[in-house]
Amino acid sequence: MAERITPREQDFSQWYLDIIQHAKLADQAPVRGCLVLRPNGYALWEVVQNELNQKFKETGHRNAYFPLFIPESFLNLEKDHVEGFAPQCAVVTHGGGKKLEEALIVRPTSETIINSMYSKWVKSYRDLPVLINQWANVCRWEMRTRPFLRTMEFLWQEGHTCHETEDDARKETLRMLDIYLSFLRDVFAIPVIPGRKTESEKFAGAEETFCVEAMMQDKKALQAATSHYFGQRFAKVFDIKFQDRNSQVQYVYQTSWGISWRILGALIMTHSDDQGLVLPPKAAPTQVVIVPILQKNKDNSAVLEVSQRLKDELSKQFSVILDDRIEHSPGYKFNEYELTGVPLRIEIGPRDLANNLCVLARRDGLKTQVLLDQVGAETGRQLDGLQKDLYAKAYDRLKSHTYVENDYSVFKEKIEAQGGFYQLHWCESRKCEDAVKEETKATIRCIPFAQIREAGRCIVCSSESKGRVVFAKNY
Amino acid sequence: MAERITPREQDFSQWYLDIIQHAKLADQAPVRGCLVLRPNGYALWEVVQNELNQKFKETGHRNAYFPLFIPESFLNLEKDHVEGFAPQCAVVTHGGGKKLEEALIVRPTSETIINSMYSKWVKSYRDLPVLINQWANVCRWEMRTRPFLRTMEFLWQEGHTCHETEDDARKETLRMLDIYLSFLRDVFAIPVIPGRKTESEKFAGAEETFCVEAMMQDKKALQAATSHYFGQRFAKVFDIKFQDRNSQVQYVYQTSWGISWRILGALIMTHSDDQGLVLPPKAAPTQVVIVPILQKNKDNSAVLEVSQRLKDELSKQFSVILDDRIEHSPGYKFNEYELTGVPLRIEIGPRDLANNLCVLARRDGLKTQVLLDQVGAETGRQLDGLQKDLYAKAYDRLKSHTYVENDYSVFKEKIEAQGGFYQLHWCESRKCEDAVKEETKATIRCIPFAQIREAGRCIVCSSESKGRVVFAKNY
Asked: Is residue B468 part of a domain?
């Protein structure tokens, strides 16, 4: 099967689709633009849910669930919001066999419906902060879809919070961005550049949007998560007021933040290779597979017994499977677990056993012979090593393909030839931002928090610039 | 606030709504028939998810996610299925600003969309069994809605499986029913009667439907979960075929099974009282609340210190909160945790402390003075005791309000006056089943697995009957 994966060099897009198919992560649904998340893919989503739920709860957030359907009139209340989302909506016009008086929108995001509830719940500063998250499906009509990255329906989480002060809300916006950043770094082994979106790229209805941007193996950018500061915009539209500590009535300050299943696309495109999916151990639903080297029509009991004992021992610390199927050859199995991205394979054959040895094979190719009584400790070391190495490789890619450039024509040539991230001076005008997009398809991914602050000239119009921003082509 | 809960005796329906409101479990959404599941309610749903996920995974099932939207034509493929569900559908007719060529149904249940995928995935007996579950929102247009019990959109899980043989599929159907039964019994402390549905009450498209039926405090029945055996019905419609062990092509045998957030309604109506929500300890997101008896403008440090130490100790085993807010009186707090159903309250005041004592107050009123160094062990005992007592009370209610009756007019009088479950002889005709429903609103809840098998006469038409079935009014 492995040879059916198109090599990255040949066709990166097809390689991505092949990985998804062969690792059985997802499948196309019979409804255009919709995806079926198969058990192997859903298991990755469960890792995201478990890890983030823990971080959300540690920081005082609670989960809730709001309705799928939003009255059409709600969406119209905030001008920028409706302009951003109306063209993407799926609309329910009939229910229970009758035409509805008011059409219902299938939520593209839940600011409006959630804020309509917050206006009922928030009365006093004692009710604040409101720190609520929801795991849900949302729907955005897309003309061109791509598994995980752009689908008509997708799974995500969306946090929506209310605060007493601007300062509290701004801190929350950045705290949640940081939770995404550390999750991506520590679990998914994906380094990202955190920063602020420009006016043209920010969320429809937000005052400010912050994001974390990752680089894929084809050197394109992928926005992995966003966090929005709303100020009092929605609070004023939905009348979310509270009596403050001085008995004055005030509007709340708000944030929202979300991460979707598109990060599974980021995970694939950051680490996988031409043999299949590559998963960092902390993101892997199955971390270790034990493959006993069995011989048909022979007595395999010694190898099986040791394998089972190893499984029992390792299962205390890691998530382990033992593949003792006799009908498939070891080679077949090796291939299968390479396709599905299991980080560490342990091989035990009769010859190894005679020497009290087994082989630990990391998914990235590194093989080690280990004494049987040291497998426990060595498994932890190998998994840690792989986790670190995958991050380092991705970090190195990001660093070595981020260029500081001052000449527009050089930039245009380079981005066309090799992709990458470009630190460019920009005059902060929409016009120059649009010009670059028009001519190169590159957009400003973010104004990085770690911005290169220096005087310079806009790469397009040569007006004054105070610092560089990051341009790239993106998913 | 407690006095604002309508007593059960006065108006059971209003009492139910009051509990939901005061315990902040849910709220009405601005879309008719939709519910907002607030954090206190969602925490209960997370208990359901965690407990069932564990049981599902132990029995080899994996989670996946299928699309929200189903092409209208799919629903029409199975005759009984479409007749059952078409009148309840919400229909998307427009997307991305355009009228769709084929309307999309918002899933009322996912048999059709999931089976369309299974027909792609299943080729050989080696692909079987397929054991997949999905946690999702579904939508059924309801004219009369009631929080949790009947809402237009609701959260549920739906398992969908394929098997090689009828025997395997039938075993799966009953295995999953048993998982629901033991979850309800052991975690939610709800005793249920398991059995089979009659032809008229079974799931649209199923060969057989099995269910577990609970009795609420008003003596009405509530169907808490169902498990369906489909035989090869959908397999033939969706062409789900496999090569069996003898190289013959066969259709798979299928099941589906589900539990929805209506069990939160069952939980409320089984245990709660006129003071608020009552939660069995194993179903409680917060099991213990420590309330130090604080005195304004005095030194509370000794009480607070012991409270914190207790919290740290108990948190190793239980989910505990410490309410050290100085601005609220102990009475206010007691009331709040009665409303929200925290199973055990620990009170620590300065006088108790002087005697090395504290008070453990169970949510059902039982109070015990305990030496501080025995709180750890005693907390476990009190929680276990409450869990058992709540089950026993519900079990006793079910038993003492289940009547064996032979006279139709006596039955009609009794069910009108006092509700309850009635073991009645029935001739197995739709006509007599409908007659009872027409005259009393009672339906056959199930043909219990533990049926009273004895010769008798149908309570309506006096034809021969071989055993009794359970009639009751139901939610």
From this structure: yes
Residue B237 has, within 13 A of its CA and on its CB side, a CA count of 23
Name the pLDDT band for B3 (thresholds 50, 70, 90): low
Q: Tell me if residue A471 falls in helix, strand or coil.
A: strand
Look at residues B240, B271, B302 and tell me which one is the last residue of a structural domain: B271
Question: For A94, which residue in chain B has the nearest alpha carbon?
Answer: B91
Residue A347 belongs to what domain range?
Answer: 286-384
Domain count, chain B: 3
Q: Cα–Cα distance between A288 and A224 in angstroms, integer?
A: 27
Q: Which of A171, A183, A169 lies closest to A212 in space, CA to CA?
A: A183
Indicate whether B115 and B199 sit together in one domain.
yes
Q: From the CA of B434, how many Å to the nearest CA of chain A?
A: 24
> Is the pLDDT score of A235 beyond 80?
yes
Predicted pLDDT at A2: 43
**Nearest CA to CA, how far is A69 from chain B (Å)?**
7
Interchain CB distance below 8 Å, A64 and B93: no
Q: How far apart are CA B308 and CA B311, in angstroms?
A: 5
What does the alpha-carbon distance between residue A284 and residue A272 come to, in Å, rounded to a whole number?
13
Q: Give which of B180, B161, B143 is closest to B48, Cα–Cα.
A: B180
Contact B65, A84 (CB under 8 A): no
CA distance A321 to A318: 10
Query: Which among A31, A140, A285 has a CA at the least distance from the CA of B114?
Result: A31
Q: Above pLDDT 70, what percent of chain B?
A: 99
Is position A391 within any domain? no
ipTM greater than 0.90: yes
| Spatial separation of the C-alpha atoms in residues A31 and B101, rounded to whole Å | 12
Shortest Cα distance, chain B CAs vs residue A91, angstroms:
5
- Does one domain contain both A409 and A374? no
Residues of B in contact with A115 (CB under 8 A): none
Nearest CA in chain A to B35: A67
Instruction: Find, in chain A, the residue whose alpha carbon is nearest to that of B116.
Output: A30
pTM strictly above 0.80: yes
In this prediction, residues A96-107 reach a mean pLDDT of 94
Burial of A271-303, coded b for 16+ CB within 10 Å and e otherwise, reads bbbebbbbbbbbbbbbbbbbbbbbeeeeebeeb
Distance CA B152, CA B142 (A): 6
Residues of A in contact with B139 (CB under 8 A): 68
